[in-house]
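Sequence dictates fold. Next comes a concrete instance:
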Amino acid sequence: MALFYLVRHGEANYDNMLENGFWGFGRDFAPLSEKGRQQAEITAKDARLKKAELIVSSPYTRALQTAQIISGETGIRVEVDIDLHEWIPDEYNQYETSEESFAFAREFTKFKGEYPPGKKCRWESLSHMRKRMIRVADKYSDYDKVIFVGHGMVFRCLTYIEKMNPAEIIECTYQKGQAVCEYSFT
C-alpha cells in the first residue's frame, strides 16, 4: 500500500492568457502567480514531503512550477505523467472565455459527471477522468511514498475531497484494486 501526498498546484496567473490567444487548452500554460509561488514555497517546507521517494507532476505549467519548487527544497526527482492533467472542460478545445468553461463545469455537476443517455457532451466525463487517475495511481502504487502535484478535480477521483486549496496537501493511502471513492458534487 502506498501513501500519496496529493498537492494541488499554487495559485495560477491567468491575466494575459486570453489576450495572448491562449484559450481552451492554451490556458494550461498559465504560470504561478507570485502568491502561488509563495504558497508552493511554504508547502515545500512541510516535513512530510521530505520522506517521499518521487514527485509526479501534471504536465501543466502551474503544476510543474509547484513540483519544481518542492523538488528544489526536498531534492526529490520530478517525473511528469501526462495522465495527471486537469479535467478537460471542452474536449474540442474551442471555448474562448472563462464563462464557457464555467458553464461546462456547471453542466458536469448537473449531470453528476456522466453524459445523459444518448448525448455526448463536450466535457470529459467523470468515468474517463477516474480511469486515467487510477492508471496514474496504479503505476506508482508500489512506492512507499509519492508526491503527486496536480489539480483538485482529478484528485477528487482518488480520495474524498470536498474542496482543495492551492498548494494544500492531502494524504491518501492507495492500493491497486481498491474500491472507487465517491466523488462529491457539492
Notes: The two ends are 29 Å apart (CA to CA). The chain has a mean pLDDT of 90.
